[in-house]
Amino acid sequence: xxxxxxxxxxxxxxxxxxxxxxxxxxxxxxxxxxxxxxxxxxxxxxxxxxxxxxxxxxxxxxxxxxxxxxxxxxxxxxxxxxxxxxxxxxxxxxxxxxxxxxxxxxxxxxxxxxxxxxxxxxxxxxxxxxxxxxxxxxxxxxxxxxxxxxxxxxx
Length: 155
Prior knowledge:
This protein has helices at residues 14-25, 37-41, 48-53, 62-83, 126-146, 148-151, and strands at 87-93, 99-105, 108-115. The chain is an alpha+beta fold.
């Protein structure tokens, strides 16, 4: 069991706040109301030791796929909050654990990410999780800033 670091507060960074919102929005009938932010984010923390333990499986665990969706939904919503451009994720995943994620804003591909070995999807620490999310958000915002006409195209 992974324990929360003393400084692990999702409120510390906007990306983590959005990610927690994504988790909580999925909690039907208040199932996660009593859980801390850390308890919601803990499945995304995969230490090097744990990563080595995880075997490649024949089929992708639906929970891993779901966490990937929530992570990239949070990236899209954080980009939208910073730019006003609605970003829709499109995820195509092969059952063997690889695929592609694109985040679209208007006619613009805001983010294009090849995913590989997603059986082990996760981050070494809460800080690394936030760093990865913020890096993707910054990249998406930069792309929208470079091509604002394409991003704001509604047709």
